[in-house]
């Protein structure tokens, strides 16, 4: 039915077209024929059929008309002859024909009006189609815009808006719906702007929360890469034999091999997919927001807002916790947050092609942060008293610096800071080793190390570089001259060098600088820490003479071991000691000072011991006759001195001789002081004779050469003052004394007039009260007069000396 109705509709149209073709000039047939192809599909086939039928009809009509007109011509001629008779008949027929034609025309007119009406409808439809073809792309683009908004593809939505405004809206600007769309676009742009800014805020909050993880990942990657490189380098050094052995001091190659293996194992464990900053953080919001604001022409506002917010976050990141210095985790969190912050900035710098973050802005932000970081680290590291914590802090700073250096940041100031922290690290090491040395000294028994077999001998030799062919030849059991503290101290000095060396690793310093640093820190350990501990040890009250002697022996061997320590440092750094600027170890002066202090303490303690014995003296200063033997306290003192000087045989000769001379001089002075004591008011001749017996024992002790090395009677000269004074009183040879006084060859040259006067006055008071002289009044008077005469002459000599001075 549809095809039949369609066919009926097209028949009049085809008839019209055929009529136009028949009635139109040949040059204008083209548009008419085109309308056939613009109509419904397959219409041209039906038209061709119609055209063929029309042609056949025309052929028939032509043929019919030809036949008709030919007969009519003949008939016309005939009829012309009969025209008059047939005119009326013809008129009737024409009238009838006209009526019939009029009836037939009414139907044609009706069909023509239908054709015109269809033509107008067709024209209107064509116009509507054309307008719809203009509007449909606009509507499709606007629909696409809505879809992009709903799926949050805001940058694409802005591009779509731009296309609508520049391409599509001008085509349909006359329509009301277009005006509504145009009015709605600014609102959509505002919504996009707000939404993108909200996404940016969420992004900023997200990266603030993920800064720790980003920084931790970046630092781990840098650490793994560096550990592998350093381990590989150490392994190569071992292969090429850079570590040498000097006098049993070696850098253990096993340490390098273990470190290398551990590094390879760690590298294998971390061969899994390496996380990047893009894996941890979605950067699409910032890219999207940047593109959106760029399209909106408000990029500067976005840049200012982003940079302002990031600077605020930088200030928060750079603000450390108050207790950060207490644990290494506090420092690690601080560094990972900073690394995470700047890794994000660097990523945005490169991905946005410097449109959002420029290199100048990034470097300015880094310089500001670097000053703050250095200030924070300088302040907090000053609270660190644990060298292990300081070393871990140094390792974190190195990883921190290497990580950021890998991203193009300048970190020279961080390595300069590490030089400051290195000094602090050395100070903490010195404090730690102060306790180590103190413990070693407290645990030492200050006696030579006993050795019972070859194994023990080799054990000591492996710890301390001791060489003595004579000791090697001796049979077991035997003893090392030093005590147990010497090898322990030597080992701890090497451990200190190792600990100090740890800080120099990864500081990008030359071997010469490392060598100089190790030698300077070792010098500080020797001259300040070890020297201070030795001095404190020497001054302790419970340290006796035997311990002091052993300390002097120990310092001698430690001093000799300093050259091995220098070789040890050379073995580590491969810097020859003959280099011009190589610092020498100050062990020589350090141990000399300690020895001098110990020697002084020996002299002091020896004198104190003599004073203790002298305080035990209990003389009867009024006795009439001596006991005939030396005092008990003095014999005990001499026996003590003999035993202690036997211990001094291990000391250098000059030290033992000085100690012996000092002891004798101090004993002589103490005895002289005892005679001249102001509290002692009177002395009898018997007491003087008893005192003389004691001095004789002192002189015998001095002449027995308790310490070898004295020439002649050098040691006896310590008692010369006492001897001459006692001889003067016992012989009562005042005439010789007074006559030869002041002469270089005087027999009593060492007797001071004032000393003789004091002692004589003590004896004068005794003579006055002595009952013996009561039986011999004349002798009593003569001696009393002699004493008074001598006293006067002595006083005149004393007065002359005072006036002369």
Automatic annotation (TrEMBL):
Keywords: Exocytosis, Transport. GO terms for cellular component: exocyst; plasma membrane. InterPro entries: EXOC6/Sec15, EXOC6/Sec15_C, EXOC6/Sec15_C_dom1, EXOC6_Sec15_N, EXOC6PINT-1/Sec15/Tip20_C_dom2. GO terms for biological process: Golgi to plasma membrane transport; intracellular protein transport; vesicle tethering involved in exocytosis. Residues 414-762 form the Exocyst complex subunit EXOC6/Sec15 C-terminal domain. Signal peptide: none annotated. Residues 50-219 form the Exocyst complex component EXOC6/Sec15 N-terminal domain. It comes from the Eukaryota. Component of the exocyst complex involved in the docking of exocytic vesicles with fusion sites on the plasma membrane. Belongs to the SEC15 family. This is Exocyst complex component. It comes from Propithecus coquereli. The gene is EXOC6.
């Amino acid at each position: 039915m549809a095809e039949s109705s369609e066919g009926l509709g097209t028949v009049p149209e085809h008839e019209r077209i055929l009529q136009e073709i028949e009635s139109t000039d040949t040059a204008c047939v083209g548009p008419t024929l085109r309308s056939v192809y613009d109509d419904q599909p397959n219409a041209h086939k039906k038209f061709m059929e119609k055209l063929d039928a029309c042609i056949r009809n025309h052929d028939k009509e032509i043929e019919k008309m030809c036949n008709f007109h030919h007969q009519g011509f003949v008939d016309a001629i005939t009829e012309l002859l009969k025209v008059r008779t047939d005119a009326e008949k013809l008129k009737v027929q024409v009238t009838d024909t006209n009526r019939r034609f009029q009836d037939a025309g009414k139907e044609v007119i009706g069909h023509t009006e239908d054709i015109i009406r269809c033509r107008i409808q067709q024209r209107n439809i064509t116009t509507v189609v054309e307008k719809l073809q203009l509007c449909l792309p606009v509507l499709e683009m606007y629909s696409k815009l809505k879809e992009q908004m709903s799926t949050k593809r805001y940058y694409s939505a802005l591009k779509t808006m731009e296309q609508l405004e520049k391409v599509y809206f001008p085509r349909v600007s006359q329509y009301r719906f277009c005006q509504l769309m145009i009015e709605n676009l600014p609102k959509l742009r505002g919504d996009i702007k707000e939404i993108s800014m909200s996404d940016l805020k969420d992004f900023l909050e997200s990266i603030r929360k993920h800064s720790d993880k980003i920084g931790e990942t970046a630092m781990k990657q840098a650490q793994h890469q560096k550990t592998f490189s350093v381990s590989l380098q150490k392994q190569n050094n071992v292969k090429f034999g850079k570590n040498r052995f000097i006098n049993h001091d070696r850098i253990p190659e096993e340490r390098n091999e273990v470190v290398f293996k551990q590094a390879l194992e760690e590298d294998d464990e971390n061969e899994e997919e390496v996380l990047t900053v893009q894996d941890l953080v979605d950067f699409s919001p910032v890219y999207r927001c940047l593109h959106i604001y760029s399209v909106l022409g408000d990029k500067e506002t976005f840049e200012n807002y982003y940079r302002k917010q990031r600077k605020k976050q930088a200030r928060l990141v750079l603000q450390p916790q108050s207790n950060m210095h207490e644990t290494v985790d506090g420092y690690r969190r601080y560094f990972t947050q900073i690394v995470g912050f700047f890794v994000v900035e660097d990523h945005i710098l490169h991905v946005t092609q410097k449109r959002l973050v420029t290199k100048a802005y990034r470097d300015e932000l880094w310089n500001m942060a670097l000053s703050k970081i250095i200030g924070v680290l300088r302040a907090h590291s000053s609270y660190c008293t644990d060298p292990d914590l300081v070393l871990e802090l140094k390792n974190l700073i190195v990883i921190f610096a290497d990580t950021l250096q890998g991203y193009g940041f300048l970190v020279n100031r961080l390595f300069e800071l590490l030089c400051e922290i290195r000094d602090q690290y050395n100070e903490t090491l010195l404090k730690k080793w102060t306790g180590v040395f103190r413990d070693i000294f407290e645990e030492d028994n200050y006696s030579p190390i006993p050795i019972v077999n070859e194994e023990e001998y080799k054990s000591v030799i492996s710890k301390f570089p001791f060489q003595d062919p004579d000791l090697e030849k001796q049979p077991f059991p035997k003893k090392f001259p030093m005590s147990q503290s010497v090898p322990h101290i030597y080992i701890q000095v090497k451990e200190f060098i190792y600990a100090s060396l740890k800080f120099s690793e990864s500081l990008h310093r030359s071997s010469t600088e490392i060598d100089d640093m190790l030698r300077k820190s070792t010098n500080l350990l020797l001259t300040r820490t070890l020297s201070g501990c030795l001095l404190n040890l020497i001054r302790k009250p419970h340290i006796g003479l035997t311990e002091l002697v052993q300390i002097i022996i120990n310092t001698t061997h430690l001093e000799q071991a300093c050259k091995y320590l220098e070789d040890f440092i050379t073995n580590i750094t491969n810097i020859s000691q003959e280099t011009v600027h190589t610092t020498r170890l100050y062990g020589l002066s350090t141990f000399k000072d300690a020895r001098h202090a110990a020697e002084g303490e020996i002299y002091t303690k020896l004198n104190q011991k003599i004073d203790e014995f002298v305080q035990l003296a209990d003389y009867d200063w009024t006795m009439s006759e001596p006991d005939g033997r030396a005092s008990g306290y003095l014999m005990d003192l001499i026996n003590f001195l003999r035993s202690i000087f036997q211990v001094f045989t291990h000391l250098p000769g000059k030290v033992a001789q000085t100690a012996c001379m000092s002891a004798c001089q101090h004993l002589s002075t103490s005895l002289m002081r005892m005679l001249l004591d102001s509290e002692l008011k009177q002395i009898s001749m018997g007491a003087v004779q008893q005192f003389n017996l004691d001095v004789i024992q002192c002189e015998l002790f001095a002449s027995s050469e308790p310490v070898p090395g004295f020439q002649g009677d050098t040691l006896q000269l310590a008692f010369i003052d006492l001897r001459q004074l006692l001889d003067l009183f016992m012989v009562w040879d005042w005439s010789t004394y007074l006559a030869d006084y002041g002469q270089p060859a005087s027999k009593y040259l060492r007797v001071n007039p004032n000393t003789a006067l004091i002692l004589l006055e003590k004896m004068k008071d005794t003579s006055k009260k002595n009952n013996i002289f009561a039986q011999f009044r004349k002798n009593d008077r003569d001696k009393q007069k002699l004493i008074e005469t001598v006293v006067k002459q002595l006083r005149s000599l004393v007065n002359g000396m005072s006036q002369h001075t």
